[in-house]
Predict the structure.
Amino acid sequence: MSSRDRLAFALDYPTLVEAKRGAALVCESVGVLKVGLELFIREGPAAVKLGEELGCDVFLDLKLHDIPKTVDRAVASATAVGARFLTVHAGGGPAMLAAARERVDREGAKLTLLAVTVLTSLDNADLTAVGVGDPPGPQARRLAELAVASGIGGLVCSTAEVAALRQVVGPDAVLVTPGIRLGGGNTDDQKRTGTPAGAITAGSSMLVVGRPIRDAEDPAAAARAIAQEIARAT
Ligand code: C5P
């Protein structure tokens, strides 16, 4: 994988016009465009088409978490619009995860499912508040094992857990790490953060970066610097 393919830019913009402008600035260094809730709810499949226009894969980050049949049918829709990656919450349980996996197989689609373990915005206290007694590390491992047992090897996790989860999924699975920060600065609402080099050396396949690129004075230069850091750490 090239360093470009290992960098996903979160298109966290309210409109297609702004997303396209933001993506065009960075697509020289970024191989994957992540379309999340903010953009997809307003713009729908047109946002996914941006990938084709700009020569990037599209990561549809809708974090599906519903009853198995609903997720099964949503996965079919995601394959129809041309997403290359799609997120589901591992916490949706074994039947939901298996339904998603089976639907991808039935469609014969080139779609990689990624099971979200523990959101990078959550810490110990947040997990306690929702009734999870374990800290993020063991909880992420439990959810990773569940995802793998349900046929989903791709995972989303924080840089703190990626080395341990790599042991669970093996060398070929796609491990995606959001919560990337360049060190020392503002972490926004993220609580379990890591640097680009730290994520790569710990075993991440792909880094998701949003605000550190989107809100940079020079987004193209910020994306280029992160891609260079990925290349150096590889
Ligand atoms: O701006 P920032 O780099 O924090 O953006 C991170 C992106 O990754 C956001 O679009 C967020 O929805 C997504 N994400 C995350 N944590 C996860 C899964 C996805 O932050 N566990």
Residues 175 and 205 are 5 Å apart (CA to CA). Residues 7-233 form a domain with the TIM Barrel fold (CATH 3.20.20.70).
